[in-house]
Write a structure and sequence with these properties.
Blueprint lengths: L1 E5 L5 H4 L6 E4 L7 E4 L15 E4 L9 H6 L3 E3 L6 H16 L2 H10 L6 H8 L12 E5 L3 H12 L3 E5 L5 H6 L5 E2 L3 H7 L2 E4 L13 H6 L4 E5 L8 H10 L2 E6 L4 H4 L4 E3 L8 H21 L20 E8 L4 H11 L4 E9 L2 E8 L5 H8 L4 E9 L1
Parallel strand pairs: 1-2, 1-3, 3-4, 4-5, 6-7, 6-9, 7-8, 9-10, 10-11, 11-12
Antiparallel strand pairs: 13-15, 13-16, 14-15
Bound molecules: nicotinamide-adenine-dinucleotide and 3-phosphoglyceric acid.
């Protein structure tokens, strides 16, 4: 029986895929896996029993992925599973930033007790006039799962779309309409566009990506949409830009008290991925990835270890080893097996940055002694016997 600890509410539709060999728990001190959404794990003590962490969603800045890698713990996420939900909210964000709908609705509601409200509306509506999207320039920063969908949606709305992503993947490039123009620098986007939508992960290199130096380059009346992470945009600099009219509206899915007190900010309470469809997609994908790892040792969509897939073992035993990416690890591991005269049926070794994973199918039973000998190799982080007949 595997134990899965949940740190956030996870869609039942996904959890139901776990099956009878799994117990879902919020309290167990020794779970095999953790399943979460945006819960911040940085200050949490990670139980030694945890082998894999499944982020039902895209962003992993709430998880100390390098620290967990050094403990031999795999972190996976669910690429693209919530991209459509975010894209739809970005389309709404484009419209909200263009038309004073939020302000207009709030004003109309405030006049609800006035019997003359219908007349008043016709008199006052000119205060809430806006602009159209068609023909405007949209700059999309980050052309991953969400950025691609947003770019294509921008074209469908009649916008001229510029995309910037120096690391764009082949898969994204295939999904992107050929009518999206390639921006060669962030500055180009900042200088030329009427709307900017951010779709990059929050990492050291992207913190405060939108700052006073970049905002200086912008045309007056720029609209900025941030459905990626709050810290990508400097609060102080956005305030100055809103005050000066450089930025006409900042739509963010990550408002804080400071932002909610600024005129020109539309703060949405982190609803990008909050649709039934997206929550189901993410939970299903994360559950699938956790099951693959716990039952077969396969790594799917990891953000801190290489992906590794050997299907279902058809030999007597399977062993999975997380270790440092240093010379002679495979030699030492197979040396231990050879000493015990154990034949290797199949094997995979892959690395990602400083860490690596070795998955081995063998034709005989694996003893505790042998497991301990592999664990004792310098650089080995976690050893798991996945199947043992
Ligand atoms: N608001 C929400 O509810 C919500 C939902 C999903 C994702 N997100 C956020 O959006 C981010 C993007 O999600 P995604 O699914 O598109 O991820 P993704 O990994 O598919 O795409 C991210 C893209 O950013 C690019 N990139 C990285 N650094 C860059 C840089 N310095 N400049 C330009 N491009 C850069 C990458 O090459 C990649 O193509 C997530 O990391 C997460 O923080 C928010
Ligand atoms: O990175 C993500 O996937 C989003 O920010 C969604 O987060 P949530 O699962 O907490 O809604």
């Amino acid at each position: 029986m595997y134990k899965i600890k949940t740190l956030n509410n996870i869609s039942q539709d996904g959890l139901s895929l776990l099956g009878g060999n799994y117990r879902i728990t919020e309290e167990d001190p020794n779970p095999d896996a953790i399943l979460l959404r945006s819960y911040k794990m940085h200050d949490m003590e990670l139980p030694e029993s945890v082998k894999i962490i499944g982020r039902a969603g895209a962003g992993v800045n709430n998880i100390p992925i390098e620290e967990y890698a050094s403990k031999g713990v795999i972190v996976v996420n669910t690429p693209g599973a919530n991209a459509n939900a975010v894209k739809e909210l970005v389309v709404l964000g484009l419209l909200l930033s263009s038309r004073k709908v939020v302000q207009g609705i709030n004003w109309a509601k405030s006049a609800k007790d006035d019997p003359e409200v219908a007349k008043l509306i016709e008199k006052e509506k000119s205060k809430f006039a806006g602009q159209e999207l068609t023909g405007k320039k949209l700059g999309v920063i980050g052309l991953g799962a969400i950025g691609v969908l947003v770019s294509n949606a921008g074209l469908a709305l009649g916008m001229e779309v510029y995309g910037y992503d120096p690391f764009v993947s082949v898969e994204s490039a295939w999904g992107l309409s050929c009518d999206v123009k390639r921006a060669l620098s962030l500055d180009e986007i900042m200088t030329d566009c009427d709307y900017i939508s951010l779709h990059v992960p929050l990492i050291d290199q992207t913190k405060n990506l939108v700052n006073s130096d970049r905002l200086k380059m912008a045309k007056p009346g720029l609209r900025i949409l941030n459905f990626a992470r709050g810290a990508l945009v400097s609060n102080k600099d956005i305030k100055d830009a809103l005050d000066s009219g450089k930025v006409a509206c900042y739509v963010t899915d990550f408002p804080d008290q400071e932002l909610l007190n600024m005129d020109g900010v539309i703060g949405i309470p982190h609803l990008g991925a909050s649709t039934a469809e997206s929550e189901e997609n993410c939970a299903r994908m994360a559950v699938h990835e956790i099951k693959e790892f716990l039952e077969n040792g396969n790594i799917v969509n990891s953000v801190n270890y290489p992906d590794c897939y050997m299907g279902v073992s058809n030999t007597q035993a399977r062993i999975g080893i997380t270790h440092k990416n240093i010379p002679n690890m495979v030699g030492q591991i197979t040396g231990v097996l050879a000493k015990d005269n154990i034949n290797i049926g199949d094997m995979l070794n892959k690395s990602k940055g400083d860490f690596a994973y070795t998955l081995i199918d063998v034709d005989s039973h694996i003893s505790d002694d042998l497991t301990n000998m592999i664990s004792d190799i310098d650089g080995v982080l976690k050893v798991r016997v996945i199947k043992n007949n």
